[in-house]
TrEMBL record:
One of its GO terms (biological process) is fatty acid beta-oxidation. Keywords: ATP-binding, Membrane, Nucleotide-binding, Transmembrane, Transmembrane helix, Transport. It comes from Tetrapyrgos nigripes. This is ABC transporter domain-containing protein. GO terms for cellular component: peroxisomal membrane. Its main location: membrane. SMART domains: AAA.
Length: 715
C-alpha cells in the first residue's frame, strides 16, 4: 500500500516536472499570447466601457423625448448618457468640427497624437533612466551617476517642450472646434449667404414658435464653448491613457512576466467595474447645470432690459424673489453634485491610488523574490534598478488607467454638452422644415381645430396681397380667425382695426413669413418688400447713420449712391434734421434706445422707411407718439414715394389716408370693405353725439321725476 502511494507521488512529481518543463519551453509563446490578449482586452474593455452605458432611469426623459433629446414636460434636461445615442450625436457634430482629413482640425489632431506618443516614449525612457540613476547610487559609481544625471537634464528639454506644445495644440483645437460649430450654428440661426437662407428667420421662430430651447444665447455662447473644450480634452484624456496603459504594461510584462500582470489586470478590472457601477450620472448633472445657469441668466437679463418699467412700478421685491428663486435652484443642484463628487472622489482615490498601488508594489517585488525563467542573476544594484524602473512604469500605468477611469467622468460631461448642442442643431433643423413643438392651448385639441393645425397652406409670390381662406393661428394653436379672405392691390392703403389680441399684428407676422400658413393661399411679395415700424422701433448698436439705414451698412448706402446729405434730407422729412448736430454728427455711437425719446424713435423709424423705400410698409401703431400734423405729413410722404401702407391704429385721424379697412370683431369674424373716411367720420361723430346724449338721460329722468313731484305738491 505504502509502495503504491510512493509510486503515485513519484508519478505526480514527474508529470508536474514535465508540465513545468513544457511550460518553460513554451513560455515565450505564452508571454506573447498573454501580451496580445492584454492589448486586445484593454482596447475591448475601453470600447465597451465607453459605448454601452445604459441610461439610468433618473437620467432618461419621457418616451416623447427619446431619440431626439428634447426637454420633457417636467423641464428636465434632455436624456444624457454615454450610450449609442451619444455616439450618434457626437459623430454628427464631429463631422462638423472636423470636416475632412485635410482640414486644419485634422492636422491639429495629427500633431496632437504625435506629441502624445512622443510624451509616452519620453516617459518610458525616463522610467529606465530613473532605475539606472538609483542603481549607480547603490553601486556607488559616481561617474555613471553623473553621466545619468546629464542624460536626465538632456531629456528634460524635449519633455518640457512636448508638454507645452500639447497644452498649446489642445487649446488651439478647442478654439478651432468652437469656431466651426459657431459658424454652422450662426448660419442656421441668422441665415447664410445663399438667397434661400435670407428669408429664414430661425432666430425668431426658435424663441416664438417652439418651446424646446429656452435660451439659445446661452447655448450658442457658453454651451458650444464648453463642448469644444471638453471635446479637445477628451482626446488626450482618453487616447493617451489607453496608449500608455498598453505600452507601460507591455514594458512591465517584459520585466516582471506577463503572468503577474494577468493577475493584476484581473484585480484592477474587477474593482474598476465595481466603481463604474456606483459612478453618479455626471453627464446629466452637467446638462442640468447648464440649463439652470441659463434660466438664472435669463431672469437677470430681463431685469436689465425692463429696468425702467420695474423701477417705476417698484417691482424690486418681486424681481429679487424671482432671481433668488432661480439662484437657489442653481445652488441646490450644485450642492447635490458637489456632495456626490466628494464621496465619489474618495472612493476613486482610495481605489485607484492606494489599493491598486499596493497590488502594483507586490508585482514589482516578484523579480526580487522569485527568479523568473530567462532572467539573469543580478546584483543588488540590478535588483534596485529593476524595482525602481518597474515601480515607475507601474505608477505611470496606474495613473494612465486611472485617467481612463476619470475620462469616463469627462465623457459623461461631454455627453451633457453634446446633448445640449445636438438639441440646438436638431431644433433648428426641425424649424427649417417647418416642424415646431409648442404647448398648445386646450381648444387646439378640438377635432375641427386640430384639422386646421395639421394643414399647411400655400404661399405664392405676387405684387399684390391676397388671402384666400387663410386661418390665422397663433403658435400655441389658438385659432383667431378661421378663414380670412381679402385682397389689396399695390397702392391701396389698408387699415386694420379690432379689439386687443384679435390678430391684427399676427396678420403681419404671416406677411413677413414669420408664422407658418396653416391653410388656404397667401399671395404676397417677398418679405424683403416689407418694412415694419412697430410702436417701439428697434434701434441697433452703431452710429446715428446706422439707425437710419439699418440693416444696411455705410458701404451698402454708398453703393446705392446715397450720401449723408441725402440722409439729412430724409431726416428733414420727419423734422429730425437737428438730431445730427445735437448728437455730434452721423458717426457718433450711442445707446440710441436711451438717447432718443419715444416720439423721436418713431420718427427715426419713419426716416428708415423713406431711406429703404420698400413696396409695403407695415405700421403697427407707428405714429402713436408723434403729433397729428407730423403723422399726416409722414403718411403723405410715404404715399408720394409709392409705398403702400398697411396700418394698425386706433386713431380716427388716420382713416383718411387709407382706401380699404379690415375690421376684426374679436370673436373670429371680420369685415373687409372700402374705407369711406368722410362717411365713417360723420357716422362716428353722430354716434359720439348720441352716446353723449344718452349719458345725460339719467339726469333728465331724475329732473322729470322731480318736476312731477313738485307738480303733485302744487295740486
Ligand atoms: N409668439 C407667440 N406665441 C403664442 N401666442 C402668441 C405669440 N404672439 C402672439 N400671440 C398671441 O396671438 C394673439 C394675437 O396677437 P396679436 O399681436 O396679433 O394681437 P393684436 O390684435 O395685434 O393685439 P394688440 O392690439 O393688443 O396689439 C394674442 O392672443 C397673443 O397672445
Amino acid at each position: 500500500m505504502a509502495v503504491l502511494s510512493t509510486l503515485r507521488v513519484e508519478q505526480l512529481n514527474k508529470s508536474l516536472k514535465n508540465l513545468s518543463a513544457s511550460y518553460l519551453r513554451h513560455r515565450p509563446l505564452v508571454q506573447r499570447v498573454l501580451n496580445i490578449s492584454f492589448v486586445l482586452y484593454v482596447l475591448g474593455t475601453t470600447f465597451r466601457g465607453l459605448s454601452s452605458r445604459p441610461a439610468k432611469p433618473s437620467n432618461s426623459t419621457s418616451k416623447k423625448g427619446k431619440g431626439k433629446g428634447k426637454d420633457d414636460s417636467s423641464g428636465r434636461p434632455p436624456r444624457v448618457a454615454v450610450d449609442a445615442l451619444f455616439y450618434q450625436r457626437l459623430s454628427r457634430i464631429l463631422r462638423i468640427v472636423i470636416p475632412g482629413i485635410k482640414s486644419k482640425e485634422a492636422l491639429l489632431l495629427v500633431m496632437h497624437s504625435s506629441l502624445l506618443i512622443l510624451r509616452t516614449a519620453i516617459s518610458l525612457y525616463v522610467a529606465a533612466l530613473d532605475g539606472k540613476i538609483v542603481a549607480s547610487l547603490v553601486r556607488a559609481e559616481p561617474a555613471q551617476f553623473a553621466f545619468n544625471i546629464l542624460r536626465w537634464l538632456l531629456v528634460a528639454i524635449p519633455a518640457t517642450w512636448t508638454n507645452s506644445w500639447l497644452t498649446f495644440v489642445q487649446k488651439k483645437l478647442a478654439i478651432a472646434y468652437r469656431t466651426r460649430l459657431t459658424e454652422v450654428v450662426l448660419k442656421e440661426y441668422l441665415g447664410g449667404d445663399e438667397e434661400e437662407d435670407k428669408d429664414r428667420k430661425v432666430y425668431y421662430q426658435l424663441s416664438n414658435l417652439d418651446d424646446r430651447i429656452k435660451n439659445p444665447d446661452q447655448m450658442i455662447t457658453h454651451d458650444i464653448q464648453r463642448f469644444s473644450t471638453h471635446l479637445a480634452a477628451i482626446y488626450s484624456n482618453l487616447a493617451k491613457p489607453v496608449l500608455d496603459v498598453i505600452l507601460y504594461n507591455y514594458q512591465l510584462s517584459q520585466n516582471v512576466g506577463a503572468e503577474g500582470l494577468l493577475v493584476l489586470t484581473i484585480l484592477v478590472q474587477s474593482t474598476a467595474a465595481l466603481l463604474r457601477r456606483v459612478t453618479p450620472p455626471f453627464g446629466a448633472y452637467a446638462a442640468m447645470s447648464a440649463q439652470l445657469a441659463g434660466a438664472l441668466r435669463h431672469t437677470h437679463s430681463r431685469l436689465a432690459e425692463f429696468a425702467e418699467e420695474i423701477a417705476f412700478m417698484g417691482g424690486e421685491e418681486t424681481e429679487k424673489m424671482l432671481v433668488e428663486r432661480d439662484y437657489a435652484t442653481v445652488v441646490l443642484h450644485e450642492r447635490k453634485v458637489l456632495r456626490r463628487r466628494w464621496w465619489f472622489g474618495c472612493a476613486e482615490e482610495g481605489l485607484v491610488k492606494w489599493t491598486w498601488g499596493a497590488f502594483g508594489l507586490v508585482l514589482c517585488a516578484i523579480p526580487v523574490f522569485f527568479k523568473l525563467p530567462g532572467m539573469e542573476n543580478v546584483d543588488l544594484g540590478g535588483r534596485t534598478e529593476g524595482f525602481v524602473t518597474n515601480r515607475r512604469l507601474l505608477l505611470s500605468s496606474s495613473d494612465a488607467f486611472g485617467r481612463v477611469m476619470y475620462s469616463y467622468k469627462d465623457l459623461s460631461e461631454l455627453a451633457g454638452y453634446t446633448a445640449r448642442v445636438s438639441l440646438l442643431l436638431d431644433t433648428m433643423e426641425d424649424i427649417k422644415k417647418g416642424k415646431f413643438e409648442k404647448a398648445l392651448v386646450s381648444s387646439a385639441s378640438i377635432e375641427e381645430n386640430a384639422k386646421i393645425l395639421q394643414g399647411r397652406g400655400e404661399v405664392m409670390f405676387s405684387e399684390n396681397i391676397e388671402f384666400e381662406n387663410v386661418p390665422i393661428v397663433t403658435p400655441n394653436g389658438d385659432i383667431l380667425v378661421r378663414s380670412l379672405n381679402f385682397s389689396i392691390k399695390h397702392g391701396q392703403h389698408l387699415l386694420i382695426v379690432g379689439p386687443n389680441g384679435c390678430g391684427k399684428s399676427s396678420l403681419f407676422r404671416i406677411l413677413g413669413g414669420l408664422w407658418p400658413v396653416y391653410g388656404g393661399i397667401v399671395r404676397k411679395p417677398p418679405p424683403s418688400d416689407f418694412l415694419l415700424i412697430p410702436q417701439r422701433p428697434y434701434l441697433s448698436v452703431g452710429t446715428l447713420r446706422d439707425q437710419v439705414i439699418y440693416p444696411h451698412t455705410k458701404e451698402d448706402m454708398q453703393a446705392r449712391g446715397i450720401t449723408d446729405v441725402d440722409l439729412l434730407r430724409i431726416l428733414a422729412a420727419v423734422q429730425m434734421e437737428n438730431v445730427v448736430d445735437r448728437e455730434g454728427g452721423w458717426d457718433v455711437t450711442r445707446e440710441w434706445r436711451d438717447a432718443l425719446s419715444g416720439g423721436d424713435k418713431q420718427k427715426i423709424a419713419w426716416a428708415r422707411l423713406f431711406y429703404h423705400n420698400p413696396k409695403y410698409a407695415i405700421l403697427d401703431e407707428a405714429t402713436s407718439l408723434v403729433p397729428p400734423d407730423m403723422e399726416g405729413r409722414m403718411m403723405d410722404h410715404a404715399t408720394e414715394l409709392g409705398i403702400t401702407l398697411l396700418t394698425v391704429s386706433h386713431r380716427p385721424s388716420l382713416w383718411k389716408y387709407h382706401h380699404m379697412i379690415l375690421h376684426y370683431d374679436g370673436q373670429g369674424g371680420y369685415v373687409f370693405t372700402k374705407l369711406d373716411a368722410e362717411k365713417r367720420l360723420a357716422l362716428q361723430q353722430e354716434k359720439q353725439t348720441l352716446e353723449n346724449k344718452l349719458l345725460d338721460v339719467p339726469k333728465w329722468k331724475a329732473r322729470l321725476a322731480e318736476l312731477k313731484a313738485i307738480e303733485a305738491g302744487l295740486a
